[in-house]
Fold this protein.
Amino acid sequence: MTAIGTLPLADDDEDTNAVAVVRSRQMQGPRWKRRRKRGPLLPVFGMALVVMVTIMVVMMAGGAWGDGGGVGHGGASACLDPDQCTQVPRQAPRQSPSLQQQQQQQQQQQQTEQEQQQTEQEQKEVRSGEVLPQVKLIVMFTSYANHTQLAGIINATLAAQVTTQSQSAGKHRESTDGDTTTTARPSSSPSAAPLTPPTNCTWSILERRNRALEFPTDFVVVDISGCLHHRDTIHAALQSHPSITSVTEEKHVNRGTLFASHGPHVRHHASSWAQEQQQEHQQQQQQQQQQQQQQQQQQQQQQRRHTLGLSDLLRGLMDRGDSDSSNLVAAMRARSLWELGYKGQGIHVAVFDTGLGADHPDFAHVDERTNWTDEDDLNDGIGHGTFVAGVVASTSRGCPGLAPEAHVHVYRVFTNAQVSYTSWFLDAFNYAIFKKVHVLNLSIGGPDFMDEPFVAKVNELTARGIIMVSAIGNDGPVFGTLNNPGDQNNVIGVGGIDFKDQIAPFSSRGMTLWELPHGYGRVKPDVVTYGTDVAGPGIFGACRTLSGTSVASPVVTGAVALLASIIPTEDRPRLLNPTSMKQALLSTATRLSDGSTIFEQGAGKVNLTAAAVFLDTYTPHASAWPPAFNMSDCPYFSPYCQQSLYFGGQPLIANFTILSGLAPTGWFPSLPEFRSVNPKHAHVVQLAFTSSPRLVSWAGTVAMKATVSPQARMFRGVVRGVVTITVEAPPQVPGSDRMQRSTVEIGVEFDVVPTPPRERRLLWDAFHSLPYPPGYFPRDALKHKSDPLDWNGDHPHTNYRTLATHLAASGYHLEVLGSPYTCVDLSDYAALLIVDPEEEFFTDEIKHVEKAVNEQGLGVVVLADWYNRDIMQAIQFYDENTRNWWHPETGGANVPALNDLLQSWGIEFSNVVVDGKFSYQEQVIQYQSGTTLAAFPRGGVLVSAILAPQHVDDSNQHHQQHGRDSDIVAGETSHYPIIGLYQVPASSGGRIAVYGDSSCVDDKYNSAHHTARCVPLIQDLLEYVLDHNDRGENLIKLGQVMQRDLRPHPNAQPRRSDNATLHIYSRVLQAPSEQAPLPICSHDKWITPIMDGGVVQTTRTPPHDAPRQDVSARIQHVRPADEVGDGSGAGARGGGGGGGGGGLSPISAAVLLLLGMAVGVVAFVGFKRWRARRRGSAVEREHARHHRYHHHQQHRMSFMASPTTDTHPTISTSSSNLSPTTARTFAV
């Protein structure tokens, strides 16, 4: 059996070897120190063996002795030799007497298959939601091996699920003229349902046609065809194998290149970018022909091969009033390092982009160009990759890179159409690992932070010491628009500024969205640098200026390469890693003075020279980001500084990223500690901490919750303190048992006020928001087709930030709820804000709200959005990669769920979608794809507006059938009720205000100016439910009091979509029409700092002795092939089970049984003899016990009778806590 290959490691990856030694020593129990205690060891051991053998016999009798029809380890068998694996046979060609007849038969067969496929596709398109019968799966493994070996494991595993006809299943194989009909047999796997017999369920392993083929791999792409109804079964079968970590569908990488246009905040899309490059190419060709007056062949122009003179000529095109192209080098002060001899020499930089042309005149150190796409081309047909690589290491006079002597490795991962796949990145990432590059630049980004293989591979790269720099995105100025992978802890996420040190409008803002809704996002970006009008080389060598975080990212990459060259070669394995570089950038960055927050600028602008000084004296240590938490530091710590802390409010949550330069892995050996600076404030603030189980890929997280203790409900002031976190890591010296340790101190400052009155407290519902990823939750404004997904968090600190800021400035205290309504006392709040919910509501939640409104005077403000099944059907799209139709899980909001919540008051939204503008308080307000009111109770007030309905263009059904976003057209304008005001008639009842659109306060669809126009309307809705008649009367005057109930028209009532799979992503549903159990509300064990030495330990569960295996453990320990499990032994990885050769043969079982019986007999005889000796020496043992007792008493009396003086009194201590030596020392 061939062993799975182990991936070679760099010299500096030996740190964790000693961890395994230490753990193995810890697992060894204490040795028996006295021979007299060894007596019962033999019988106990023998009896244990007997029990073990008996259990194995019972298991084998229960079905382990199979006929080989099952599979080992939960039904997943493995095969390392593909020649020994069983695979579904492909249809063999017919045996024909002549080649001509064979060709005719093949053509007829192909034509018939095409017609059948076309018919099936049309049928599936009519049945919306049906998945086409082909899908590509990325299967990730626990260890690296030869691609053929891993393919064998998949073949064997799938062969156990979909196989040819077997005699044991009672099936037979039919063969006619060489044709084979494939059927499926039931599987003995308990983890996967048996397949029904399809006739065309096949799979194939996609071949790898790139440089990575020369090295081991840890993933395989499987093309599954014809297994439409068995997708879940195939997933379960593959995931049940012990050597497979994950099975995900291949994705079209939604991470576009991040150049920005010259507009304020518009993303530069691939089509426009390529078009501009084409126009520039044509202009350059014309000028080349006019000035050189030479005939050149068109093929040479397409191959981008030009002479140095032409490049110099085209480089002069930049001299038409453009800013000085050398401003980047001057602004970064890179020449100060160049003059010292540091230019990036010896540092290898990988650029993942659109490629680079051959023999480009502006690059002197291109070590390698590789292509990972399906195009047979290494050149850059777009210009994106050329520009990015040039900013890093160009040697051009007009637009030099920051590290001109760095070694560039070009990875072409995007086609000329800007298409890429996850598997292309995975192969390229693995190749970069084997090439041992130091820095990797990704000027790409996208919102999908749940692309599991991609995210996991990024973690592995950084764990191996590769410094990854990525653009943060071009979706600003809206908050909550960070792109992946720049939003990951171990990646340096870069935002953009202009040369006036102001945040670029296009630069994406934080917070991260991974933690919502239960927690709070992390701080990103990490740093910012120049990303506006930066000069770099074009395809043909001429300099040009471009903007975007795609520009800012290579600026930091070039700076990192330049800084890395400062570290001596012999020290780089120890000092050059993702954390050391990130610490250098974060610790020395210059905070901007433009009023931007920490979620816009991170640590500030990169300070190259200060970072160089930092690295020159760097010692590996741990640090926190952010290094402090200050609620008084405004606007930098906004939105934290916009609201104070008080008793009874929702806990304040702040996340800290812990960076450890000690080793790729680490842990927290003790609980965090908190010291209060002022002893008088020790009981004011209560803290609780949670943290990641371990530090992985050089980083971990610690979350801090803060609230005010009941004793301080009337306290007003500032509470300061220091949070101390200890980090440990494996020994630096291999073989040593001395762990590395570093202490992190975080300064905290809380602004505490007395609990505000109820009428000033508002509760924002964030629990019922379900953004992308992973589900398809569509946009709220249907006209905005450029971004079809709702992915900005729907949080008051992201895309609803303008509204939240206005409410805070108006004196309201806005708290965010990340749990069900039942987890909070609604009587503490004046109003509940429900904005654009996509989630369902628990039945108990509805009852809880009804009671609070009817009996406790709670006010409710609802901002809904559109919901229409026809439009949901129209905006579906077909994913060419997963072979899936993507259907919206809801509309802009989950209107049917809102109607369930409001049903008891007779309020109901409709399925009518309207769009337009109306005036309110001399302000023009945009109503973008909102809904209308279908039912409203008598006595309520309805406000209408003249708007136009939106519906699907019936004449454009061709687009719908082909998965394109159909045209949403507008009808004739009319009056539609969009605002409803209702006073609950009970004496203690509250008020309800509903509005049919949330887009007007969504920063994603409006500029800050337009959003500000809508805010007064929303505030008047709020003032109405708070019974502030001075402003609520404004709306009442505009409306009409209902003299009778408004009843909904049957055709206007929204119905839940039949194709939606909301339960997959829901926290409320566990089936399409079945609610999950109500979650248990969290109850934090708040601990008040006690000034006992100034230190109090706060709550956190200590790490387990055996933490789960992480990325670094996977790197250091790659299981050999015999541990992966091939089903040929007695089970794989401790998993027995029969079938597939996984069980024991009867002869082996009989031998084992006899051996066990023999051991049992020996144990029994030994036990009898030991018992006899024990009885015979009972008297001797009793005598010895009495002798030891009297000897101890005599020794104790003699010790107490020792002479003492009055000047040395005896100190009374507890002997239970002191050793004998210590006790005697205290007694003297």
Q: What stands out?
A: The domain at 132-161+200-250 is CATH 3.30.70.60 (Alpha-Beta Plaits). The mean pLDDT is 76.
